Amino acid sequence: MLSVALVSLAAASTAYGAALAPRATCSDGTVVSNAQCCNFIAVRDDLINDIFEGQCGEFAHSTVRIAFHDAIGFSTSGGKGNGADGSIIAFGTTELGFAANAGIDEIVEELQPFADAHGISYGDVIHFGSSVALSLCPGAPVVQTFIGRGNATVAAPDGTVPDPFNPVTQILSRMAEAGFSSDEVVALLASHSIAAQDQVEPAIARSPFDSTPAAFDSQVFLETLLKGTAFPGDGAHQGESESPLPGEFRLESDDAIARDSRTACTWQALALDQALMANKFAAAMAKMSLLGQSKPSLVDCTEIIPKAAAAPLSKAFFPAGKTLADIEQSCATQTFPSTLSTQAGTTTSVAPVPEQ
């Protein structure tokens, strides 16, 4: 009798699980948990082929950037915009005029007509698009991805996006207002591993933040801890700090957060553990994409997001010409280890990210 009862229980459990997760087969044969995800398979493929051109390049980087700038216009107490709703496109005449959003108009010019042509909301093209963009960057994690956002109804106000010249306390305060801890702020900055600057210093546009901008890896966390160097013809500008390598650009905010007692140990931990960096980033990014949204009203389409290739290297390294002696130890409770390898050669010079 007991075995019969167990079999019956197992059958009932299987039937209950099936009821909770109905499957649908899309026209291309892909099986998904919700039929609404079928519509986004073509969106995914067209983003990869037509917008990103199959590479972890400038437009992919910019789509990850616009996801942050769109969503962070939010406050847990209200009055700061509606979060991840695509308002940065819908109300572009307002939000693109904010200083912190300089340069985002270029990716808006790509994503707005794309969304219109595919009949999807601006919020979805940004936040679904960000996950698709990351899938092209070796080492990037798969971020939990939802679709079904409605159209934005209000613009986010100015001052919600942290600037690279803001003091750490101001940045952490603004992010806390949106619901993020200091550790989550550091995790989100992993996006700088595939980023470059255009507007902080336009004369050296597309200068990357680390020496491996085509890979989502922990190199940006390590290289930000290296001592800065003044290079010939390289002056200091608002928002910029001295970088350790020719051609590399270091944001003042990254430099300060890497060395602040509230964030330094998390920064060092992510520099030393690429898997940890990817996991923490994925969690923080998914949280950000839901700001201001009702999760139960959205559809989880994570299963159609491609998995990125593995990063070329599994851990950070000292660039050529740099050693442990160049690290500015900032975490008071954990000494930076001496076991990392050093790149061959004498000097690393970082090339600009190619224009797309």
Automatic annotation (TrEMBL):
<feature type="active site" description="Proton acceptor">
    <location>
        <position position="69"/>
    </location>
</feature>
<keyword id="KW-0479">Metal-binding</keyword>
<feature type="binding site">
    <location>
        <position position="193"/>
    </location>
    <ligand>
        <name>Ca(2+) 2</name>
    </ligand>
</feature>
<dbReference type="GO" id="GO:0004601">
    <property type="term" value="F:peroxidase activity"/>
</dbReference>
<dbReference type="GO" id="GO:0046872">
    <property type="term" value="F:metal ion binding"/>
</dbReference>
<comment type="similarity">
    <text>Belongs to the peroxidase family. Ligninase subfamily.</text>
</comment>
<dbReference type="GO" id="GO:0000302">
    <property type="term" value="P:response to reactive oxygen species"/>
</dbReference>
<feature type="signal peptide">
    <location>
        <begin position="1"/>
        <end position="17"/>
    </location>
</feature>
<feature type="disulfide bond">
    <location>
        <begin position="26"/>
        <end position="38"/>
    </location>
</feature>
<feature type="binding site">
    <location>
        <position position="212"/>
    </location>
    <ligand>
        <name>Ca(2+) 2</name>
    </ligand>
</feature>
<dbReference type="InterPro" id="IPR001621">
    <property type="entry name" value="Ligninase"/>
</dbReference>
<dbReference type="Pfam" id="PF11895">
    <property type="entry name" value="Peroxidase_ext"/>
</dbReference>
<keyword id="KW-0575">Peroxidase</keyword>
<dbReference type="Pfam" id="PF00141">
    <property type="entry name" value="peroxidase"/>
</dbReference>
<feature type="binding site" description="axial binding residue">
    <location>
        <position position="192"/>
    </location>
    <ligand>
        <name>heme b</name>
    </ligand>
</feature>
<feature type="domain" description="Plant heme peroxidase family profile">
    <location>
        <begin position="60"/>
        <end position="335"/>
    </location>
</feature>
<feature type="binding site">
    <location>
        <position position="83"/>
    </location>
    <ligand>
        <name>Ca(2+) 1</name>
    </ligand>
</feature>
<dbReference type="InterPro" id="IPR010255">
    <property type="entry name" value="Haem_peroxidase_sf"/>
</dbReference>
<feature type="site" description="Transition state stabilizer">
    <location>
        <position position="65"/>
    </location>
</feature>
<dbReference type="InterPro" id="IPR019794">
    <property type="entry name" value="Peroxidases_AS"/>
</dbReference>
<dbReference type="InterPro" id="IPR044831">
    <property type="entry name" value="Ccp1-like"/>
</dbReference>
<keyword id="KW-0106">Calcium</keyword>
<feature type="binding site">
    <location>
        <position position="87"/>
    </location>
    <ligand>
        <name>Ca(2+) 1</name>
    </ligand>
</feature>
<feature type="binding site">
    <location>
        <position position="70"/>
    </location>
    <ligand>
        <name>Ca(2+) 1</name>
    </ligand>
</feature>
<feature type="binding site">
    <location>
        <position position="210"/>
    </location>
    <ligand>
        <name>Ca(2+) 2</name>
    </ligand>
</feature>
<dbReference type="GO" id="GO:0020037">
    <property type="term" value="F:heme binding"/>
</dbReference>
<dbReference type="GO" id="GO:0034599">
    <property type="term" value="P:cellular response to oxidative stress"/>
</dbReference>
<keyword id="KW-0325">Glycoprotein</keyword>
<feature type="binding site">
    <location>
        <position position="217"/>
    </location>
    <ligand>
        <name>Ca(2+) 2</name>
    </ligand>
</feature>
<keyword id="KW-1015">Disulfide bond</keyword>
<feature type="binding site">
    <location>
        <position position="85"/>
    </location>
    <ligand>
        <name>Ca(2+) 1</name>
    </ligand>
</feature>
<feature type="disulfide bond">
    <location>
        <begin position="56"/>
        <end position="137"/>
    </location>
</feature>
<feature type="disulfide bond">
    <location>
        <begin position="37"/>
        <end position="301"/>
    </location>
</feature>
<protein>
    <recommendedName>
        <fullName>Peroxidase</fullName>
        <ecNumber>1.11.1.-</ecNumber>
    </recommendedName>
</protein>
<keyword id="KW-0349">Heme</keyword>
<dbReference type="InterPro" id="IPR019793">
    <property type="entry name" value="Peroxidases_heam-ligand_BS"/>
</dbReference>
<keyword id="KW-0732">Signal</keyword>
<dbReference type="InterPro" id="IPR024589">
    <property type="entry name" value="Ligninase_C"/>
</dbReference>
<feature type="disulfide bond">
    <location>
        <begin position="265"/>
        <end position="331"/>
    </location>
</feature>
<keyword id="KW-0560">Oxidoreductase</keyword>
<keyword id="KW-0408">Iron</keyword>
<dbReference type="InterPro" id="IPR002016">
    <property type="entry name" value="Haem_peroxidase"/>
</dbReference>
